[in-house]
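Reply to thread "Modeling small-molecule complexes from scratch"

Following up on the discussion above, here's a worked example others can learn from. I took a protein sequence and the SMILES for S-adenosylmethionine and predicted the complex. Inputs first:
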Amino acid sequence: MRGAAVLLVSLIGCSSAPVVREPAPSTDDAVPSQADAPSDPPSAIASQAEPLPEEPNPVAVRINAKYEASDDARGWEKRFERQGREVHDKREAVVAALKISPGDAVADVGVGSGLYTLRLAEAVGPTGTVFGVDVQDYFLAHVEAKAKDAGVENITFVKAAQRSSNLNPASLDLVFICDVFHHVEYPRTYLASLYAALEPGGRMAVIDYIAEEGTSEAWVLDHVRASPAEFRAEFEAAGFVFVEAPELLEENFFHIYQKPK
Ligand SMILES: C[S@@+](CC[C@H](N)C(=O)[O-])C[C@H]1O[C@@H](n2cnc3c(N)ncnc32)[C@H](O)[C@@H]1O
């Protein structure tokens, strides 16, 4: 087990006020609704490291506005943990393909409703740790409550910012990031924080929708800003080395990368 601690663990109580939501879209997280500038401050990691030049936000429409507008975690859970969502239906096979060892330190980046968080906690076992990461307090609070109800004690929750995961450097064996990377508003600086958080030789497993002109559905092309090849180029530019693509999913690409030893 890696003795990992986090730079910032922040769980601010989620609002209990009723939330009025638009009718559910046909997809898990589509339908971005407004365009304005993000306001996350630079992270602790970003300010410690050699500052990267400011990068433009490539997410043209504010894809996370819907998560800011609705803190109804149970409503999101119904969308994320429903039959027909590929990463839900194949969740056990996905976790098996990650080849996690007992005692590992694993980050679930973008926990959402916790579809994977508790399964990852089971895979690392009592001597391992899962870091549940999200930018939204209400998702963190929701998954923390689920873990408490299930008696799971090896999850530490980390409040991320759009420019940093806020994970400690060289603290992880595996970063798992499922249906999240296309939501990251400053991918280059954010990837630098994920790369820094891995031990040399540590791995990053990325699952995201396949957006390819000519084959993907219109909502995917509207919603996901890059193709698998373009995302791969971003990961390789950040220093990651492509290792394998488990053949498991059809609507999503599933890539595993490594930080060189
Ligand atoms: C579509 S949900 C996916 C949740 C979960 N991984 C799953 O597959 O069910 C996207 C999640 O990413 C989170 N998110 C967006 N930007 C993020 C960032 N920069 N760092 C961490 N989480 C982020 C959102 O708050 C939301 O919980």
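What I'd highlight from this example: The domain at 83-258 is CATH 3.40.50.150 (Rossmann fold). Residues 145 and 151 are 10 Å apart (CA to CA). Questions welcome below.
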